[in-house]
Structure formats: C-alpha cells, structure tokens
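Lab notebook page, bench 4
Experiment: in silico fold of construct C2
Operator: M.H.
Input chain length: 288 residues
Purpose: comparison with the prior construct
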Amino acid sequence: MPEVASSGVAPKGETGLLRTPPYYKVRADLFPYRPHDGPDDISIMTKGVRKRPKRVTNSLKIGEMSEFVSYAHVAYQQGTPLNVLITARLSTILRNPDHRLFSSNGYDLMKIYNDGWRRWCWRPKRRFKAKSIIVREMSPKEGEHIHHLTHVPADHIPAAIDYIERFTGERRLSRKRTPDVRTRGEVACGEKNSWHFATEFPDGKPEFQGYWAAAYIGKAEASERLFRGRLVPNSSKLERGIEFGGRIKNSRYDQTQGYIIGSAARRGRYLISRALIASRNDAQTGLR
C-alpha cells in the first residue's frame, strides 16, 4: 500500500485512486461577518489565532422604529412615560485622556453608561426602574453620539442632569442658550455642547407621551426598501418624509446615521434596558 503523503493525500496509483480524499484539507472559514477596514478591525491573525471581526451596520433594521414606539407605548400605559431624551457625544469623551473611560470603545461605553444609569435610578433616594432605549449614531459633524430615551420623574430631573454632568466630565452651561442654537425641548446642555438634556418635542399630532421621541431615535431605519428590484417607500417606518410617503414635511426622520461598529456577536447599534423589556413582556401576558 502506498504511503500517505504529509499533506494527507495518497500518491497517484491504483490504490491511491481508490482512496477517499480526506476531509478538511482546507480550513473552513467560520467568520462570514463583514470586516471593518479601519483601526478597530480585528479580523487578523493574533498570535496564530484568528479573531472574529466586529460587526458593522449603516442603519437600523426594518421595523425597529415601530419596535421602539411599542416599548414607549407600554411605558406610557404603565404610568412611566419615556419623557426625557439625553444626547451625549461619545467621541468627545473618548478623546479626553483625563476621562476614566478614555480607553473604551463606543459599544463598551454604551453598556457602561447603561449600567451606571440603572444603578443611579435604583439608589435609595429614588427607587424607580431604569426604563430606557439607547441608540448609537454617527454623523460627520458631531461624530459618534448616543440618544438615550428614558423615564425620569419630574422631581428627579435636576439630579439626573447632575449625573450626566458627572459622567461626561463636562459642566453644564450656566445660562440658557439663545433660541437659534438651542436644541428642541432643551432643558440643559454642557459647556462644550457635548451633551444635551431635553424633553419631548412633538413633530405632529400628539399621539401619546414618548411617541415622537421614540420615533426620533428610530430615524436610522431606512425610509426606502427594495421590492422586486426597485426602491419603494418603507411602509413599516411610522414617521418619514412626504417624499417617502410619510407625513413629515422635512427630512428630519430620513437622514442616514452613519456606520456603527459593534462587537463580534452583536450589531451594537442600540440597547433596550431589561426593565423595559420585562414591562412589555408583562403587558403582553396580561400582568402588571
């Protein structure tokens, strides 16, 4: 019998032709995720081991704006409406070497921020559940930032502003800004404009408290989708511009929100708190 070569394939010959070729001659590629061409790309060999690349997305999935609105509706029905919208520029925080989270990437920072917010809400002086939706976005002008839609009782809003001030390391502006530079519904903002604390500002007919804010943080969903090889308006997106079959007169809900880098296993574009998920599950099963 001819000897098998080191490659695992028998030499040609009468016996070699009868031999079944060995399996796994070429290592299977188990990492089909799209690699990211940038400094955060980890789809390379490290000490002989190939790591899984991070996932990259350029929009929310179809139907996720409706998903955010459904969570906001459940919170409203249970008497804890999502009444506060916090915006923070993570790129500014990450560029500050004096900040304690300087070495964190955007996905990890979102999780750390959410955990800190949950603990803050459950301190003895407050004791309310952190019902939140956090969405990451990227824009050429502002860089990466988060929109944090959450419930804060009216008497705890000043303390919540203090917490955001401590987390970002940027003091609040001592005076109110002029209307031409103030964001919609703005209550407070940082001195360097790296964070804003605002309440909901309706863009149309009032639905319920939290509806328009939830629709706004879901604006990264595409306003068009492919149907039989051509682009048609995305009817699953609740709020979109008139040119896409919606009722909004401007393009506020139709602008793309950039590429977001997640982790190897998750897209990492948004995060919904456990308390809010549990609230909707209880509502769907008839519990309160």
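Observations: DSSP finds seven helices and twelve strands in the chain. The radius of gyration is 25 Å.
Next step: discuss at group meeting.
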